[in-house]
Amino acid sequence: MTASTPLPSPLPDAEAQCRALADLIRPSLTPDTALVGIFSGGAWIAERLAKMFNLPEETGMIDVSFYRDDFAEKGLHTQIRPTRMPFDVNGRRLILVDDVLYTGRTTRAALNELFDYGRPSAVELAVLADRGCRELPIAPTYCVWNLQLPDHSTGLTLCRREDQSLFWEVESYA
Amino acid sequence: MNITIKNARVIDPRHQIDRVADIFISDGRIIAPAPANFNAEQEIDASGLVACPGLIDLCARPGDLATDLAAAVAGGVTTLVCPPNLNPVLDEPERVERLTKQAESLRLARLLPLGALTRNLAGERLSELVILAKAGCVAFSQGQSPIIDTEALLRAFEYAATFNFPLWIRPQDYFLSRNGFAHNGAISGRLGLTGIPVSAETVALATLLTLATDTGVRLHLCCLSSAAGMAMVARAKADGLPVSCHVGAHHLHLSESAIGFFDTAARLDPPLRSEADRLALREGVRAGHAAICSDHTPLTQDDKLLPFGSAKPGATGLELLLPLTLRWGMEMGLSLPEILAPLTSLPATILGRDDLGHLGAGACADICLFAPEASWQVLPENLKSFSKHTPFAGQTVVGQVKKTLVGGEVVFAA
Amino acid sequence: MPDHNPQINANGKLTHLLSIDGLPREVLLQILDTASSFLGLADREVKKVPLLRGKSVFNLFFENSTRTRTTFEIAAKRLSADVINLDISRSSASKGESLLDTIDNLCAMHANMFVVRHAESGASYLIAEHLRQMEHDDIHVVNAGDGRHAHPTQALLDMYTIRHFKKDFAPLTVAIVGDILHSRVARSNIAALTVLGVKEIRIIGPKTLLLPELPRMNVRVYHDMREGLRDCDVVIMLRLQNERMNGALLPSAREYFKCYGLTPEKLALAKPDAIVMHPGPMNRGVEIDSFVADGPQAVILDQVTFGIAVRMAVMSILAGN
Fold this sequence. Notes:
The complex is a heterotrimer of chains A (174), B (414) and C (321).
Chain A: H1 14-25, E1 33-38, H2 41-53, E2 60-62, H3 71-74, E3 93-101, H4 105-115, E4 122-130, E5 142-146, E6 154-160, E7 166-172
Parallel strand pairs in A: 1-2, 1-3, 3-4, 4-5
Antiparallel strand pairs in A: 6-7
Helix pairs in contact in A: 1-2
Chain B: E1 2-12, E2 17-26, E3 29-31, E4 42-45, E5 50-53, E6 55-57, H1 65-74, E7 77-82, H2 93-106, E8 110-116, H3 129-135, E9 139-141, H4 150-162, E10 167-169, H5 174-177, E11 182-183, H6 186-191, E12 195-196, H7 199-215, E13 219-221, H8 227-238, E14 243-248, H9 249-253, H10 275-286, E15 290-293, H11 301-304, H12 321-332, H13 336-340, H14 345-351, E16 367-377, E17 396-406, E18 409-413
Parallel strand pairs in B: 1-4, 1-5, 6-7, 7-8, 8-9, 9-10, 10-13, 11-12, 13-14, 14-15
Antiparallel strand pairs in B: 1-2, 2-3, 5-16, 16-17, 17-18
Helix pairs in contact in B: 2-3, 4-7, 7-8, 8-10
Chain C: H1 25-39, E1 56-61, H2 66-78, E2 82-86, H3 99-108, E3 113-118, H4 123-133, E4 140-146, H5 152-166, E5 173-177, H6 184-196, E6 200-204, E7 220-222, H7 225-229, E8 234-237, H8 253-260, H9 264-267, E9 275-277, H10 290-293, H11 300-320
Parallel strand pairs in C: 1-2, 1-3, 3-4, 5-6, 5-8, 6-7, 8-9
């Protein structure tokens, strides 16, 4: 178990982190790379990345509600957005984009959903933050902010202001 | 045997009596005033209790005879009028005699049978009314079965009138009611239940009252359900027609909204109608136009565990007749003699029985002793009736019977 | 009226879908929103999501309806549920087994959801109440049509269709035409349109096919179809059952069509962009003219497509609550 690191104050600038994430990804971009963002934070980031990379296609958006493994306990989310996959995933190299990598369950759900659209040639994972507490054998391909939050009592969320700018919020459930 | 009931609050609606007094009984009859040398072999202390004439229930169909006559006396009912739609139908004198003998041998409540007006209640061929009357039928009825053919109805009226036999008829037009199972109104509309319009009652009443006028038959109308129906009966009475009626105790308290989400307990025949109808029925009883009956119906649990339209109509009633009548009377702000009249003096008059329904000298010593303020919870498993299904299950009611006497014998003691 | 609504569980969540009556607006909108997410599935390689994997959905059709049963079956299968179709109109019921005995038997087979079609109003309520008393809180009931009472999933797919084409409910005038008296679709649609707050609901039909209490349900009643259709945004045609066409309610299908059949000429009185809906199956030439049924304003086949997504939404929301 990695020792926990305290959260920096103030929290890092999420917009700057987006640019840093783009710099990490850029060297390995290929002509057939497509981005798929996970609602909602991942989708915002994916849109920014697509703009920075000047990708010709629309970005894919995934709402994993129908693939969640906690459906039996928590039921269906009241707000579900339709998954949108504006390209054929068969044979494509995909980068799955999320804001925070946590237990890994959302990533698993997103992978399952992706494969119901077809068989991509490769899937990578890009996240702004990896906060630890993994419950599945999943690791990011690209990650800007590595931190170890102590346990499930602290929540890290990416939020969007009315002017569309992104920022971090920390919630304590203790 | 001589019995004295001491210190009772005596309520005798017929004689408008409401006072603490003793009641003297000798050889099954009430004697008054007490003879100087009255020597009671049994004394019943009725302090704190009301003593009223035993209740007369104008419509109660026993399921199992022994069980339901025991339930009757537990509810203070000492006389019950039984409609002919039993199994088998009361259209043969032997059946009537067998039933009355069986009831007598139980030594519980008195059972007055209504004979079937037509054979097998089919509404076609007349039963042997004279022979059935000799066998013990106090009047003739079709139960819930119709006489569709108006000419057959007219002939039945004429024949009954010939011998001055009263006819007890449920006013419900066959065609307007045959497919329905709820009041044709807001609830049936919303729930998609086929409705029975009020006109099913008023159309039938118009026919029955016209034929009664023409033939001179003594007509008693069973289980009115609507304001318009009650108004027609009141008008006919005012016009001098020898007509009487009763309403079911349930209809004084419940309206169509009791159906809620398809509650089969609220499926009754005739159907529970609108709130305005309920209020008019309550007023009609208060005005003395109608007696109150239990409309006790034999049902099993399985009869009600069905979709609303397939469930059997009806409810248990014998043990709830007194509490439901007391509740009506209290809500109407009436005195005890006024409240108990539709269960005692009025039904006795309808039956033409001078010896029942009052506590005057010479009357049958049929007496109900009850605690007027004692409350109890209606728990189906605690009811004595064969039928346990009631829309009042779980409710708390007021008025608990403590002792019931029939013909000067204690037939029930709590 | 009892205060507990048997559709809502102790936590205030929708546990059965029995009727539109008594459901709050948010619940209706949640179902419609969820349905729109399911609509995209049809374009994918794998048309399934794993939400109801391992769950057993029993289609209990006490009244025959291949069409409705099929849409529920497709919906449940796209949610990865195991679907068992029981055509009870021919099996146990005819052997005298009571409705609730059938239910007890299926509960013992570990059913998770019952989709119930029954000829009697209130049958699904009876089943839901029985499940509550037997403490089967984890079994959900979807009413797929009970007698004349309710057909809530049909109403929801109708609402979905209206929202799809008209976006907003508030400014709409909606006409429902035909046999209201015997129609569970009409009752559920009136309830849904009322909750979602359309400007005006109109009911069009002869007095023999209407309800006594319609004026109290906040609807306007028309006997003249031309007058009733004027400036409508949505026209919902109801199916006229064969057995009601010739008899005491109506003299003939021909006369009915003349008075209440939807023809291009009558439809022209509605708004030019009005949509025409029908729950199916249609009686062409009785309640609707083929030119209208196959015309540009008809959205009848869209209703069928949306119906699957709406039923998926209902099943997944119930299963999760």
